[in-house]
Structure to design on (229 residues):
């Protein structure tokens, strides 16, 4: 009869053997599993990013993606504050972030459509392409279309808030002082910063999945991304 310590040692050995037998490498994954797991991760990352950013203060309270003043305006801040426009600059920052927060929810259907377009042949290549290869896939597939979709929404918000007039008036004053060349419109600037923020958060979600696949709560994501360990 085994004594308790021997039983524990045997049980531990059996667990190790079983674990080794169940371990799956990327080469062992079927194309179907690789594609299904990757699509699940793409959908999870996209949905999480949109949920985090497409709400009030989603951009404004996230220092990693918060839309700041264009560098030339930030540089001119001391001069503008001296002329009584400091509060206007603060309002510009809030309004730009509000515009991005309103535009981002429109990204979700476009991102999910990109997931559907992914070919089986691409799946394993994307899986093994590095910590942010999923994000790169999204960026390549959706950037242009997202910019076109975001722009009118951003413009609507900036026009409604008076941001366009504020921005243009401020830029005009800075330009007259000889401190800045001609700048892009405020809606162009905010649209680009909104896209940058969206892909930054998608990248964070992807890294989290790769770091802890089982923590994703999805069996197929755990299996596929666990095979990369």
């Amino acid at each position: 009869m085994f004594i308790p310590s021997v039983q524990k040692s045997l049980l531990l050995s059996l667990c190790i053997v079983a674990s080794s037998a169940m371990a799956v490498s990327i080469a062992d994954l079927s194309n179907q599993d690789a594609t299904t797991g990757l699509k699940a991760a793409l959908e999870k990352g996209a949905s999480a990013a949109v949920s985090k950013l497409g709400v009030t203060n989603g951009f404004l309270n996230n220092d990693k993606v918060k839309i700041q003043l264009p560098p030339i305006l930030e540089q001119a801040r001391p001069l503008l504050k001296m002329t009584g426009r400091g509060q206007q600059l603060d309002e510009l920052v809030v309004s730009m972030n509000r515009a991005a927060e309103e535009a981002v929810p429109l990204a979700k259907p476009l991102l999910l459509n990109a997931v559907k377009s992914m070919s089986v042949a691409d799946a394993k290549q994307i899986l093994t392409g590095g910590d942010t290869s999923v994000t790169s896939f999204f960026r390549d597939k959706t950037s242009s279309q997202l910019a076109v979709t975001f722009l009118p929404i951003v413009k609507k918000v900036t026009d409604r808030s008076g941001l366009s007039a504020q921005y243009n008036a401020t830029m005009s004053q800075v330009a007259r002082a000889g401190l800045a060349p001609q700048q892009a419109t405020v809606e162009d600037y905010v649209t680009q910063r909104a896209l940058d923020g969206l892909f930054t958060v998608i990248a964070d979600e992807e890294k989290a999945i790769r770091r802890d696949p089982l923590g994703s709560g999805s069996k197929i994501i755990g299996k596929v991304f666990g095979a990369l360990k």
